[in-house]
Specification:
With about 475 residues, the chain is an alpha/beta fold. The protein has 3 domains: about 35 residues, no CATH class; about 270 residues, Zn peptidases (Aminopeptidase); about 150 residues, Glucose Oxidase, domain 1, CATH 3.50.30.30. It is built from 13 helices and 18 strands. A hairpin with a 3-residue loop joins strand 4 and strand 5. It binds zinc ion. The site of zinc ion has 5 residues, from helix 8.
Length: about 475
């Protein structure tokens, strides 16, 4: 018998006990099996919440609503503004209190025309997309010989000035991993490829998409220019188009391409965080913050990134409200704006709450890694082993292990984590996440109802345990 299965059986027994009249607050099961196993205590209210989540479609329905009724919602656009109005209405409909938009302003950016052709040696169209923040090519496009770099390291090792008038092409594959460990290394060429190529005189950059699929969808994502270099346009090729380029270079051919990219900076644009609460019954000033990000890239409908996180966090709040249970501490749900373009909602949240109630945030976590099942609990608590153990006992039956990996709670939580807010993360299986990430293929059909329900169940257990525990997260009590 696997440990997970054993815990599942014990949980079932705990549920039976929890229903006994006059039963203790925490049903305690001592296993009779001869081998040694952990004692499992399931809080009966956690059982009510996780059962409610596993039997329902609260999270799934929210993702469906957002992706269907709003669709793509790039930061700073009218579509993101419509998503905020959607978020306010949805929170009110679910029964959250103190629902509001906390506005902030961003530098807007919009995509334009984007086309690519291999001119020689084998003329054909290529599929590409501009990276977020990229400047445009001259209108009519730029045509140049391509210099091939198998990896970003190869470009960084190239001498300065060697790319005058050329287009740099940076290949390099991203490795699949459940926790997305391959993303950080693969992402460097996306973030800094334009800067490194410009230092060497290039007129434009192509990269192999940062992704793990083999489909003909290029992956966008935010890039940055260093202050002291010329801004040159940068686009990502779909994986099969990158393969095509690689094969031509493998034949020792000189490759010449023409690309036209028309994105533009559009100046100040409105964004905002949407905030709502379940006000705590005993410690309303102590805040547990959960959320996801409301914006998406413009190519897909942002189902896995991050409609899923909105559905999971808000779905957990709905399950709690629908149960009639009253948490002792305040549960604050935040739909962060403008995450994709630089975690701007996370920074704006700190700016708005620092010196006010930020010091009362006892725990924060964001769901922003798709819709796969949670498999691991990660801590960003200083100390806190007692709480992690307490929480793990409530979620182990959902198939969730305890990890020694540390977390900052998620992208938009990072800025408040840096200000001392304790964080935690329910790590999802993202093995396939980067097949879809930032592509036109990030759509609702990729969302699995049962996986989302498992997530929502884990989040209700996490939020409830944090709201009721005697553990003193910040030495406040
Ligand atoms: Zn995201």
């Amino acid at each position: 018998m696997t440990p997970a299965l054993k815990l599942t059986l014990l949980l079932g027994a705990a549920a039976l006990l929890a229903c006994q009249p006059g039963g203790s607050e925490n049903a305690k099961i001592e296993p009779s099996a001869p081998e040694q196993v952990e004692t499992v205590q399931i809080n009966p209210n956690v059982k009510i919440l996780t059962d409610g989540a596993l039997a329902g479609t609260q999270g799934y329905d929210i993702i469906e609503s957002l992706t269907t009724e709003i669709g793509p919602r790039l930061a700073g656009t009218p579509e993101e503004a419509r998503a905020r109005e959607w978020g306010v209405a949805k929170m009110k409909d679910i029964g959250l209190s103190n629902v509001r938009i906390e506005p902030f302003t961003i530098n807007g950016w919009e995509r334009g025309v984007e086309t690519g052709m291999i001119i020689s040696p084998y003329p054909q169209k290529i599929y590409l997309t501009a990276l977020g923040g990229s400047v445009a090519t001259p209108s009519g496009g730029v045509e140049a010989d391509v210099v091939y770099f198998p990896t970003f390291e190869d470009l960084k090792n190239a001498p300065e000035g060697g790319l005058d008038g050329k287009i740099a092409y940076i290949s390099g594959r991203m490795e699949k991993a459940p926790d997305g460990a391959g993303y950080g290394p693969a992402n460097q060429k996306r973030r800094s490829g334009a800067t490194e190529a410009a230092k060497r005189g290039a007129v434009a950059v192509l990269i192999r998409s940062v992704g793990t699929d083999s489909h003909r969808f290029p992956h966008t994502g935010q890039m940055r220019y260093a202050d002291d270099v010329k801004k040159i346009p940068i686009a990502a090729l779909s994986a099969p188009d990158a393969d095509q380029m690689d094969r031509m270079f493998a034949k020792d051919q000189d490759v010449r391409v023409k690309i036209e990219l028309g994105p533009r900076a559009v100046g100040d644009r409105p964004s905002g965080n949407v905030v709502g609460e379940i006000v705590g019954s005993e410690k309303p000033d102590e805040i547990i913050l959960i959320g996801g990000h409301l914006d998406s890239w413009d190519l897909g409908t942002g189902a896995v990134d991050d409609g899923a996180g909105i559905g999971i966090s808000l779905g957990a709040a709905k399950v709690i409200i629908d149960s009639g249970l009253q948490p002792k501490r305040t549960i604050r749900v935040v739909m962060f704006g403008a995450e994709e373009v630089g975690l701007l909602g996370g920074f704006a949240y700190v700016e708005a709450h620092k010196g006010k109630d930020l010091a009362n945030h006892i725990l924060a976590s964001e769901s922003d890694f798709g819709a796969g099942k949670v498999y691991e609990l990660r801590s960003g608590l200083k100390g806190g082993d007692a709480f992690i153990g307490e929480l793990h006992s409530q979620i182990a039956a959902l198939g969730i292990e305890k990890s020694t990996a540390q977390t900052n709670g998620g992208p938009d939580i990072g800025p408040m984590f840096d200000e001392g807010v304790p964080a935690i993360r329910l790590q999802q299986d993202g093995t396939d996440y980067f097949d879809l990430h930032h592509t036109p293929d990030d759509t609702m059909d990729k969302i699995d109802k049962d996986d989302v329900a498992q997530n929502v169940a884990a989040w209700t257990a996490m939020v409830w345990t944090a709201s009721e525990t005697d553990y003193d997260f910040r030495g406040m009590n």
